[in-house]
Amino acid sequence: MSPGDPDILLVADAGYDGPRLARVLADLPIIVLVRMRSDRVLHRPVPPPPSATARPRGRPRRHGGEFVFGDPAT
Fold it and tell me: Which residues are in the Transposase IS701-like DDE domain (predicted)?
C-alpha cells in the first residue's frame, strides 16, 4: 500500500470472531466489521465499588449489566 491509500475493509459474517480478527490485524491498515447475531448478549463494564471501606465480601464481579440485542429496554 502507498501513503494516502484508503484502508482495507474486512467484512465478515456472525460466525467469525471479530475481536480476535481485530487484535490479530491491528498493525495493518484494515477496518474490521463483523455482523453480530440478534440473540447475542454483551456485558457492560463492572461498576466501581461504592467505597474502599465498604467493600462487599466475596469475589469481585467480573461483568456489569447485560446488553441484549433483542431487548429494546437494554
Answer: 3-74
Q: How far is CA 18 from CA 14, 28, 36, 66, in A?
A: 8, 15, 9, 19
Nearest to 30, CA basis, from 56, 64, 6: 6
Q: What type of residue sits at position 51? A: S
Does one domain contain both 51 and 68?
yes
> Do both 25 and 6 map to the same domain?
yes
Under 8 Å between Cβ of 13 and 33: no
The total domain count for the chain is: 2
Q: Which helix (H) or strand (E) holds 67?
A: strand 66-68
Q: From first to last of its 74 residues, what are the pLDDT tens digits of the chain?
A: 778 888 899 999 988 888 899 999 999 989 999 998 888 888 888 887 776 666 667 777 788 888 888 888 87
